[in-house]
Amino acid sequence: MPKTLDGQITMEKTPSYFVTNEAPRRIHCMAKDTKLIVVVRNPVTRAISDYTQTLSKKPEIPTFEVLAFKNRTLGLIDASWSAIRIGIYALHLENWLQYFPLSQILFVSGERLITDPAGEMAKVQDFLGLKRIVTEKHFYFNKTKGFPCLKKPEDSSAPRCLGKSKGRTHPKIDPDVIHRLRKFYKPFNVMFYQMTGQDFQWEQEESDK
Asked: Which residues bind 3'-phosphoadenylyl sulfate (predicted)?
């Protein structure tokens, strides 16, 4: 980590920290006052997105439907498969709360980061004690990618969009598998909402589809 001067904030991003058992203890030992930001999204969508990324690198892997179940006839979800296990947010958060108070963790909604990026970034800036410099004028929605892009209003340089690995088209998944996954995640989602004091409304979002 680079040295941080007074008045500076040093940021570092590694998605796997949240699901790595040793990470909370190690980070706490290094800097117990660290503020943590976790971006979460509907775990069903997250699992399919995870699979889509892997599929792009390893086209020979089995279908999502095959990997998602230990026994499809009995409807037994394979929670040891990382694409599914990562979305059991309550399980991972329990580990972090042994070392960090909830006040030091900000949960950002992956869905709202797409529909209202400025609103979510306002929360991030407030959490970090920064002035709200990044606002609506810094974003525009890229219809091709399906994500907002970042632009500098005072600058004519090209906007920065997410790379080629983001915004891939998801494969079509059997609706019965989606339904079973939603049922599997529901109690964990409810537990996560209770632990964080935030309702991410993933069930509402699914019933709207």
From this structure: 41, 49, 166-170
